[in-house]
Specification:
Number of helices of chain B: 11
Strand order of the largest sheet of chain A: 6-7-8-3-9-10-12-11
Order of helices and strands of chain A: EEEHEEHEHHHHHEHEHEEHHHEEH
Strand content of chain B: 15-25%
Radius of gyration of chain A: 21 Å
Distance between the termini of chain A: 33 Å
Radius of gyration of chain B: 21 Å
Order of helices and strands of chain B: EEEHEEHEHHHEHEHEEHHHHEE
Strand order of the largest sheet of chain B: 6-7-8-3-9-10
Helix content of chain B: 25-40%
Oligomer: heterodimer
Helix content of chain A: 25-40%
Structural class of chain A: alpha/beta
Structural class of chain B: alpha/beta
Largest sheet of chain B: 6 strands, mixed
Number of strands of chain B: 12
Number of helices of chain A: 13
Chain lengths: 345, 342
């Protein structure tokens, strides 16, 4: 559970001046009346300018909580950051005052959420909501904020932007609402965009449109993006690197191609084998047996061991460290090499 | 659960046939003197047949009417017009005891396992409730035993019969919903997005369970989902819906390998494939815009506003879901053809 040593972060070498954003050995717990849930147990990842990191995991894996910790929007209590660092341009956000963090939020790191309908305020027109950030943070006049809001709505390709400024969120379709939220996030020209399940509530044809838009914006504005998702299909198209999370840890971290070709952690391997494929006809789906663990009672040793087909006694006794597999890949499995060789077959 | 399929019931014969079913929801204006000013055409002249032991997948985007179709078949909504026969009996005309008898043959598994189970009832009561309504389905005194058998069939511990829904995970709750649907040994189970609320690793467990139960009890499924990969995996035949209409229907292979309707082609091409290498070989058809409002669908072909093949005729004449020269399965497009290289 508690490795005090900071784990090495894999993949690309540290550029001079450090990474743009780096999470180091983050531990977060939720203190509830029923007990302490260890939601994040030593997560480390980093992001450089212009790249896309996908954080993949099922519900309860801690992928959204990590993002909320970066943004500083964790509900505290019950959430409590026990230890770790979140470095943005070399400065640790966790030691900053609320006022300093406010300067980072939105202007440096912005976030979009899964459900645009509940993330937008139903009683204000969208133009007003996009302009709010500009008036509050940039001290723009109402007229200027309106003008800029139209530009932003054009940027996210909302047709007839000037006419739709006065419309309310319920007058937009799901895809258009998601575009409004992206426009709000882009208002202050952030360097990092965190997208938390941005297309989960959308239909496939609209999902494709939104993912295209995000890819275009990232390229045009040279933003770095953290894409949080549970969908292995979405990730394959847009991400440079993938971090797979399970029970509050990163179990595998690799570039997209090598991860899909040959997963090196039994959990990733199980996930890839359990999804029906559109382009492959199959028999019965292979499954991962059992259920994700209760975060108040995380299993000893490797948290995946009760569900793992590779389990040995060592998995029950010893927490696996990140095993570096060359070409920048890591896997937190005692048998990572074996798993990868099996997958590559 | 013994002798699931009686010898008189032949696989492949038609169990359910649906003919020109229409459901319009009226839109009205005014408080005291309401007058109808239009209608949302949620389901518009839908016809298909379901055979014994087969799975018919129904796919489409939100608002295409697939869930309304499920509710119509369960008689949870009253159709505006049309006919449906279940085992030769008219489903929409039946009432009273006849309807109750018919309902035994048709059960439903709902999408959200968190809201479709009563939190104040034990699992035993939830699964046993069908026996209260149909006392002849389980002999006196055998109810508890039957419930435990059902729990065992869906892979839950029969000893957990006195637990409450909140003590189970999402996947286990969906198993409870499936056990409840199986209780009366129905012929047909309508599954409305049964796995979309579940995590990937749990999804596969539930899909495998549904397939195994189908083999065991000779069930027919109507499997409604928006996830095209899941539908391909489980279905024998697939119907694609757009704005209340079936635009294309055929075997799983006809739809996924030789789709002739532009909407089906676009839908299939938009599905993200979890393989970065395979993605490069695919050309994705980008549809522009959103689905039009079903209250005011476009004239002629409903897909023409987003279709890259649209011609003048598409705005004037509505294409029917009939056999087209391109491939021997029904498709509702004037210019139906198999997409080259797809």
């Amino acid at each position: 559970m508690t490795q005090s040593a900071v784990r090495p972060t894999p993949a690309s070498p540290t550029p001079p001046g450090g990474h743009l954003l780096e999470v180091r050995d983050l531990h977060v717990e939720f203190r509830t009346t029923e007990g302490v849930a260890r939601v994040i147990n030593g997560v480390s990842y980093h992001l450089d300018a212009g790249e896309t990191l996908a954080v993949l995991g099922e519900s309860g894996s801690g992928k959204s909580v990590t993002a909320q910790a970066i943004m500083g929007i964790l509900d505290t209590p019950p959430a409590h950051v026990r230890s770790g660092q979140i470095l943005y341009q070399g400065r640790d956000l966790l030691t900053q005052s609320e006022e300093q963090r406010r300067q980072v939020r939105g202007k440096e790191i912005a976030m979009i959420f899964q459900d645009a309908l509940s993330a937008l305020n139903p009683v204000f027109p969208v133009g007003w909501q996009i302009g709010e950030t500009l008036r509050q943070r940039e001290g723009m006049s109402r007229a200027n904020a309106r003008r800029r809001a139209v530009e932003l709505m054009d940027l996210v390709k909302i047709p007839a932007a000037a006419k739709r400024l006065g419309d309310y969120p319920h007058q937009f379709s799901g895809g258009m609402r998601q575009r409004v939220m992206i426009a709000m996030a882009l208002a202050l020209d952030p360097k990092v965009l965190i997208a938390d399940e941005p297309t989960t509530a959308l239909d496939v044809t609209v999902q494709a449109q939104i993912m295209d838009l995000l890819a275009d914006l990232r390229r045009d504005l040279n933003m770095a993006m953290i894409l949080i998702t549970h969908d292995l299909g979405v990730v394959a198209g847009v991400a440079d690197r993938i971090a797979v999370m399970y029970a509050g840890r990163i179990v595998e971290h690799a570039d997209v191609r090598s991860l899909y070709r040959a997963p090196a952690h039994p959990y990733t391997k199980g996930l890839l084998e359990s999804i029906p494929r559109l382009d492959v006809r199959g028999q019965a789906l292979s499954t991962i047996k059992g259920l994700p663990p209760n975060l108040m009672r995380i299993p000893s040793g490797c948290p995946f061991h009760p569900r793992c087909p590779y389990v040995q006694q060592v998995c029950v006794d010893v927490v696996p460290h990140d095993l570096v597999l060359g070409d920048g890949r890591t896997s937190a499995c005692h048998f990572a090499q074996e798993v990868r060789d099996d997958s590559a077959r | 659960m013994t002798a699931p399929v009686s010898p008189t019931k032949v696989r492949g014969e038609t169990v359910l046939s649906v003919d020109n079913v229409v459901k319009h929801f009226p839109i009205s204006r005014g408080v005291l003197f309401q007058k109808q000013i239009g209608a949302v055409k949620a389901v518009d002249r839908v016809s298909f047949e379901l055979r014994r032991g087969e799975t018919l997948g129904v796919v489409g985007e939100s608002g295409c009417g697939k869930s309304t179709l499920a509710r119509l078949l369960m008689r949870l909504e009253t159709p505006t017009s049309g006919r449906a026969t279940l085992e030769g009996k008219d489903l929409f005309k039946a009432s009273g005891s006849e309807l109750r008898r018919l309902r035994r043959n048709m059960q439903m598994v709902m999408q959200d396992p968190y809201t479709s189970l009563n939190p104040r009832m034990t699992v035993g009561d939830i699964i046993g409730e069908p026996f209260e309504i149909h006392p002849d389905a389980a002999p006196k005194g055998s109810k508890r035993k039957r419930v435990q058998e059902l729990l065992d069939v869906v892979g839950l511990n029969p000893e957990h019969v006195n637990r409450y829904p909140h003590q189970f995970s999402g996947g286990q709750r969906q198993r409870i919903g499936i056990a409840r649907a199986l209780a009366l040994r129905p012929e047909v189970i309508v599954c409305d997005e049964p796995v979309s609320a579940l995590d990937v690793s749990i999804q596969a467990q539930v899909i495998n369970l549904l397939e195994q139960l189908q083999d065991e009890f000779g069930l027919s499924y109507i499997f409604i989902a928006h996830d095209l990969s899941v539908v391909r995996h489980i279905s024998d035949r697939v119907a694609v819906m757009y704005l209340g209409k079936i635009v294309e229907i055929g075997t799983e292979e006809e739809i996924y390998e030789r789709a002739t309707h532009p909407y089906t082609q676009a839908l299939l091409s938009a599905v993200p494939v979890p393989d970065p290498d395979a993605r490069e070989d695919r050309t994705i058809i980008r549809l522009t815009g959103d689905v039009p409002s079903p209250a005011d669908p476009p004239s002629g072909c409903r897909f023409r506003t987003r279709c890259w093949k649209a011609q003048e005729v598409c705005a004037i004449q509505e294409p029917h879901t009939v056999l087209r020269a391109a491939d021997p399965h029904p498709s509702a497009c004037h210019f139906a053809e198999v997409r080259p290289g797809a």
